[in-house]
User: What shape does this take?
Amino acid sequence: MILLDSDRFSFFWDNMDRNDPVYQTYIRILEKELVCAMGCTEPIALAYCAAKARSVLGELPDRIEVYASGNIIKNVKSVVVPHTGGRKGIAAAAAIGVLGGDENALLEVISNVTDEVKDRLGPYMEATRILIHPLESGCVLDMIVEVSRGDSRAKVRIANEHTNIVSISKDDEIIFEKESVGEDPKEEDQPDYDLLTVKDIYDFACTCDIDDVREILDRQIEINTAISEEGLRNDYGANIGKVLLSIDRSVRTRAKARAAAGSDARMNGCEMPVVICSGSGNQGMTTSLPVIEYAKELKTDKDMLYRALLISNLITLHAKSGIGRLSAYCGAVSAGAGAGAGIAFLHGGDESVISHTIVNALAISSGIVCDGAKSSCAAKIATAVETGIFGYEMYRNGQQFFGGDGLVVKGVENSIDNFSRLGRIGMKETDKEIIHMMS
Assistant: This one.
C-alpha cells in the first residue's frame, strides 16, 4: 500500500495557472453541483415548483394540478417526503410545497416547515383537489404545477434541471419564459461539462488550491456524514447500513454501510439535508462517504481527503453528464465508480490506476436499472460502492477488462462514452417499460 502525502503535489503549485479555463470551469461545476437538498430531489423539485406557483398566485390555492414526466412520476412514487408525516408521492410533495414551502430556498424549500404546517397538511390535502397528469415532452425531467383559487390561477414549469424554472404565468399573462426548452439544452450560463476528462480531473485534483474548494468540500463532509450517522442510529427503511455492519466491520464494509445508511435515512423521510452530486443526494452520498471512511482508515491528512473528494465528485459528474439527470440507468453506478477512483487515489493511484478503476467498475455494474427512489436504493448503493472498490483492487492485483470486453473499448474516455450512450439512448425503451410497470 502506498499512502499519499500532500508534499507529493507541492512541485505542481508554482506552475499552476488558476486562470486556466479548465480550472475555472471545474470550480464552477463543483459550486453548481455540490449543493444542499432536503429530501429526494425529484419530490423536492416538485415542492419547489408548487411553492413558486403559490407565491405567484398570492394566496393559498384550493386546487392543484401537477403535470409530470415519466421519470418524475417514477422517482416520486415510492419515496417518503420529509415533513409530511410519512406520506409518499406527488400529491404530498406538491401539497407541502404549497402549504409550507419557501420558494426562495430552492432544494431546501421545505427545510423550515413548522409543526403547525405539519398539523395542517392532512386536512389541507383532504379539502384540496389535487390532480396528477402524465406530461409528454422532449425533456426527461419535466414538470408543471398549476394552482388556482376561484378565477385566479398561476402556473410554473421546471425542466431539465431540478430548479430550472423555464416559464411562469398568472392567469393569461406570461411573466417569465425561456426561449428554448428542448431535450437537455445547453444553458448559456452553464459551465462546459465537455471539459471533464479523467486526465484533467486528476491534474486538477493534484494542483488545485484547496482554498478554492475548502468550503464546498467541508460542507459535503459534515452534512453527508451527519445523515449517515443518523441512518445508523435509527430505524429507516430496510436498514441496509446496519445489516452490512452486522456482517463485519472492515473498512470495505464500513465504506458501503456509510453510504447505504445515508440513503436508508433519506429515502424514508429523514428531515436532514444532503450535499448532492449530479442532481442526486444518493449519488452525493455514494461518491463522498466511502472516500471519507477510507481516509479515516488510512489516516491521511485533510488535504489528501479534499483531493480524493475532488477526484470522486468530478469523476461521478463526468461519468453521469453524458447520461443526463434521469434515466433507466442507476446513477449510483457512476457514483460508485467515482468513489472507487477516490479510494484508488488515497492508496497512491495515479491517473492510469484511476482510469482502470473506472473502466473495471463500469464494466461490472452498469446493468443496474433505476426503478425509482425508494428503500432498495441503499442496497444498490452498497453494490455500486463494492464494485468501485473491487475495480481498484482488480487493477492493483494486475487484472483489468480490455477493449472488446462487452462495452469496454480502448481508452477510458471512449469507454465512458459507451456507457453513457447505454444509459442515455440504449435504455430509453427500458425506461418507458419501467415507468409503465410502475404506473
